[in-house]
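Good day; I would like, with your permission, to put a structural problem before you. A protein sequence and the structure tokens that stand for its backbone fold form the material at issue. Thank you for your consideration; the sequence and its tokens are set out here:
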Amino acid sequence: MVRKEEFFIHVNDTPKRLFISRPESIKGDALSPCCMTPDDVDFEMSTGKNTEILEIYGMNQESLEYFVHHYGKSYRYLSFFKCQLIKDFSPLEDLGNLEEVSLYWNIRADKLWNFSKNLSLKTISVSDAKKLTLKPDLLKTSSVMETVFFSGSIFDNYPMESLECFAEMPMLKHLWLNNIRLNNKSLDALKAMPKLERFDFDAGMLTTEEIAWIVAKYPELSGKCLCAYNKEDAMLNDVRVCGFRKPGLDLPQHQKRLDKYIAQFNALVEQYKNEE
């Protein structure tokens, strides 16, 4: 996912990281405990944390609410990394300066929040959070969101009800689904995404026929799998044929097979172009 360069956090960017640093408070891995208290928040913030960009580790519900109330107003980018016990992210509704939010690994929260007051929030990333991924309908409350990224686990494709949760997002330009399994693979929602420019997903999330249909009906869309094959999803091969259960191929020994897949894909695109 393309992010603003200024929001990148490097290894030595300690002022951009909020975690429990006092040894007596640590009850587990220093970068993933969920025992952060309001007192821990005050102590860590007193050490000179960046006031616009912050990656937060191990925060729980109490410390989230305290942080937002006392320190949150100035932040443009917040990343919640391994804050798995936060069950309600709605305090973020009041942060009008937020431009980007990242949520990585959460097991309690089952919904996002009302975005109607987050009028600067253009990008959200949700990774390894199964309950949040299933039906993120509250995204529709945003009038400004441009980029949405959802990712399952590296070990498991997470279910998502359908693409309907992204329909009627007036400013959505880039939708990226990684390690996601659609329960309902209807593509009707695409016609209700008026600004969509790029749709990225895994090579096996949709069938070859479904991919060809998108290419035929929405020729203005780009995406790494809106084609017969790509290299990004090839893994141990040279190329990956796009489509559910399609193979990876090595070149040049499999060139004839690849040519056959390309011809079949192009024929499907032409067929769908001519259908009403």
